[in-house]
Specification:
It is built from 23 helices and 18 strands. It is an alpha/beta fold and about 575 residues long. The strands form four sheets. A six-stranded parallel beta sheet has the order 5-4-3-6-7-8, sandwiched between helices. The chain has a six-stranded parallel beta sheet with strand order 11-10-9-12-13-14, with helices on both faces. Helix 11 packs across helix 17 and helix 12 packs antiparallel against helix 18.
Length: about 575
């Protein structure tokens, strides 16, 4: 507010000085020019008060008339001069003021001030999202769908304007500014008491690194999730304790490697990280044999390492010099969009193809050309832009890597259900047969529909009724999946993990005892989650599930009901 006030004063300084001078000269003149009385005789000039009063209503175009008597010719001549002077002065001031309103700096000050006020007045927990490109937009839509507030800082003004057109449930504070500036982060709520965490999702690794460092120094206790497409940047972030670092290329390379040797593990991870309500895609297992990889950049290198790590023959097509490709990998110079290059790489006898350039048109061209030569090819496609989704869906490759979706899914899994990241680590430690059993259980419960995933902590905030019961009694895990509508019925939910004290159990048994402070991860349908929240928070519902008897509702009935039961 002070910035706006001082900016207006600075820009309007000259017009205000001109107006003050015009008013002073005009008033002074009327106090010096003699007038006439009602009889036409010479009269003293107007007093200072009357002169100021007359100039005030005249210069503002109100115009009551001449006071207290008709003016003399000299006074009217001077008033004529004053009228033109004040018109010029006001015109100059109004034009300057209109120019100020159109000034980019002034508009920016207004926008920044309004943004800062909206952030200060937030009374709900929120996340600070830095970067609202394709990845950031996906994260924002997911947060909005989950009724979680968020604040956006985006460098491109057009993206901020597009946010205003989004059909969000709540009003989203958004600012077009450089997120790596500490003052901008502080203005966006970095030190706000309700800020839950910072998501650095820009397309620039250096900017994400600066955001992570600023958060670490200005608010060390705040959770930070940062995007890093360069391994050195990721290592730098990890060195000063960034909580979660997402490298989409390395992550996809890991997924592909797991899919080669443990396809059920990948499918189980897809069950719990997919978008709720979406159908599960069929399981795809990459074949063993010769592979052709087009591209040798940030995406292709982790993929090549995964393929070579599984003892597969890999031929790399890249315009880079042959020295950049380390033997025993075979190198072919080119882009892969020409049939001759693919023929030279041996695509006709290959089992798989990776089109991993940074150009969507080239990737589709490579895939279409290679598929004509070898219809049985297992095709892995890199999709760089979400806007090209219709083209990639029409091609229907076995694997399609969408960078923004990988980052968005992992970001949401990390910040919404932190226990899910630990569950995924546990899944990776088990063999594929164990994962196959988990997939069978998920499919039996949910069919082909991706469930919701949520976590519960047995404390007074998230489960007050069950926590109060556990202080004096005992309960097993099965109570959290029972329906209070039908005692013999169970909720459409599967416990994925229980963590408490020294206990870590994946797919825990129904008879596992519960303790205060336990953290549990569930997968289930939305109505199952709602029912579970009811029994966790309502003592009457919990008592009914435990005993089969309804508990008296009011304190009077609770007090005297026990006496009647004893009788």
């Amino acid at each position: 507010m002070n910035s706006i006030f001082f900016l207006v004063l600075r820009r309007m300084r000259a017009p205000l000085i001109v107006l003050i001078v015009i008013y002073a000269v005009s008033v002074l003149g009327l106090t010096l020019v003699p007038g006439v009385d009602a009889n036409g005789q010479l009269a003293p000039p107007l007093s200072f008060f009357h002169a100021f009063y007359f100039i005030s209503y005249t210069a503002t175009t109100i115009g009551f008339g001449e006071i207290p008597n008709a003016f003399s010719d000299a006074q009217r001549l001077w008033v004529t001069v004053c009228i033109y002077l004040t018109v010029v002065g006001w015109s100059y001031s109004i034009v300057t003021l209109l120019a100020l309103f159109q000034d980019k700096a002034f508009q920016n000050v207004l926008v920044v001030g309004r943004f800062a006020r909206r952030v200060r007045h937030l009374h709900e927990p929120f996340y600070l999202v830095c970067g609202c490109g394709e990845t950031g937009a996906l994260v924002c839509r997911t947060l909005d769908a989950l009724n979680i507030r968020f604040v956006v800082v985006e460098a491109r003004e057009e993206r901020v304007q597009e946010l205003d057109l989004e059909d969000f449930k709540t009003d989203v504070p958004a600012l077009a500014a450089d997120a790596q500036a500490p003052k901008v982060l502080e203005m966006a709520g970095l030190r706000h008491a309700k800020c839950l965490g910072v998501l650095a999702l820009t397309n620039d690794d250096n900017v994400n690194l600066a955001i992570a460092i600023s958060t670490r120094l200005l608010n060390p206790g705040l959770t930070v999730l940062a995007r890093a497409e360069n391994s050195m940047t990721a290592a730098n972030m990890a060195s000063f304790g960034t909580h979660h670092i997402v490298n989409p290329f390395e992550r996809f390379g890991d997924y592909l490697g797991l899919a080669l040797k443990a396809p059920h593990t990948i499918r189980l991870m897809g069950w719990v990280t997919g978008l709720p309500g979406r159908p599960m895609s069929p399981m795809q297992r990459p074949p063993s044999g010769a592979w052709v990889v087009c591209g040798h950049g940030r995406f292709s290198q982790p993929v090549i390492r995964s393929l070579a790590g599984n003892d597969l023959q890999v031929t790399v097509i890249t315009p880079e010099p042959a020295g950049t490709v380390v033997p025993p990998l075979r190198h072919i110079a080119g882009l892969g969009v020409c049939a001759d290059t693919l023929i030279e790489a041996g695509v006709a006898g290959a089992v798989g193809l990776v089109a991993g350039t940074d150009n969507d048109v080239n990737n589709l061209s490579i895939a279409v050309t290679a598929k004509e030569m070898n219809p049985d090819l297992f095709v892995v496609l890199r999709q760089n832009r979400i806007s090209n989704a219709p083209l990639f869906e029409a091609y229907d490759a076995q694997f399609t890597m969408v960078q923004s979706r990988i980052i968005a899914h992992e970001s949401m899994a990390t910040i919404i259900t932190p226990l899910l990241a630990r569950f995924l680590d546990e899944v990776r430690r088990h063999d594929d047969d164990w994962a196959a059993a988990g997939c069978a259980r998920m499919e039996a419960q949910f069919g082909n529909e991706t469930p919701q995933v949520w976590s519960v902590c047995l404390n007074d905030q998230e489960a007050p009724a069950l926590t109060a019961h556990l202080r004096d009694g005992r309960a097993e895990l099965s109570i959290m999946t029972r329906s209070f509508e039908l005692l013999d019925d169970v909720l459409e939910a599967i416990p994925l993990m229980l963590v408490g004290g020294d206990r870590v159990s994946v797919f825990p048994a129904a008879n596992m005892p519960l303790h205060c402070g336990d953290r549990l991860l569930f997968a289930g349908r939305g109505r199952a989650r709602d029912s579970q929240q009811t029994l966790l928070g309502n003592a009457n519902t919990l008592t009914y599930l435990l005993t089969g008897h309804e508990r008296p509702g009011g304190w009077v009935w609770q007090k005297y009901g026990k006496k009647f039961e004893q009788r």
